[in-house]
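Propose amino acids for all 210 sites.
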């Protein structure tokens, strides 16, 4: 009897849940994610696919500011010199002007295809063959590199093409392997000085000081 009475009381005093359920609209969150993704795609700078392995030296200074204008990056490593131009139209204009200086004609298709390249490490004598096979991974990663005179000419003409098109000079970066002997870096700096390029940046990996 006592058990039945307690059971009846438990049915009389059923607890009422105070938990409320709210519907969540995920649409604004998806919109925000799409906006962030679009921003990263439009404003992000793609990484250089470097044909030569470069182990960057370390430094203690850190600067997140990007220079205004267009970048020209000199790559030094494994006894090779290469050049990276970050704008396709400048690459095409530079190839056309260098070809004219050396009596080498390029078709519009060749110029357009060269505009798709990112790192220049093939001498002019064999660059037509290189363009015809681009992007061939074996040819890309086995580029022989430029001589110091060829590198100087590419830099001079590309900066001229940049100024003619955009009214500003490209900013020079040097990205050298940590094992590169200093005299090689000094020769590049001297070459830049001959072109009256006295302002440039050196790329290195940043180690946070504790």
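Proposal:
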């Amino acid at each position: 009897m006592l058990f039945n009475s307690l059971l009846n009381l438990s049915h009389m005093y059923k607890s009422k849940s105070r938990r409320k359920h709210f519907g969540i609209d995920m649409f604004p969150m998806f919109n925000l994610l799409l906006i962030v993704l679009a921003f990263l795609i439009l404003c992000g700078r793609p990484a250089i696919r470097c044909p030569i392995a470069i182990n960057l030296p370390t430094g203690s200074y850190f600067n997140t500011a990007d220079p205004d204008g267009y970048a020209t990056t000199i790559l030094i490593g494994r006894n090779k010199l290469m050049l990276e131009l970050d704008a396709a139209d400048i690459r095409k204009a530079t190839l056309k002007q260098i070809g004219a200086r050396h009596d080498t004609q390029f078709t519009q298709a060749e110029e357009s295809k060269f505009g798709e390249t990112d790192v220049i490490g093939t001498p002019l004598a064999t660059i037509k063959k290189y363009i015809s096979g681009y992007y061939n991974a074996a040819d890309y990663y086995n580029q022989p590199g430029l001589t110091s005179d060829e590198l100087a000419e590419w830099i001079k003409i590309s900066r001229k093409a940049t100024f003619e098109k955009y009214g500003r000079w490209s900013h020079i970066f040097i990205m050298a392997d940590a094992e590169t002997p200093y005299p090689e870096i000094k020769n590049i700096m001297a070459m830049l000085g001959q072109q009256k390029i006295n302002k440039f940046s050196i790329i290195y990996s940043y180690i946070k000081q504790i």
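The longest helix spans residues 148-166. Residues 62-66, 206-210 have pLDDT under 50 and may be disordered.
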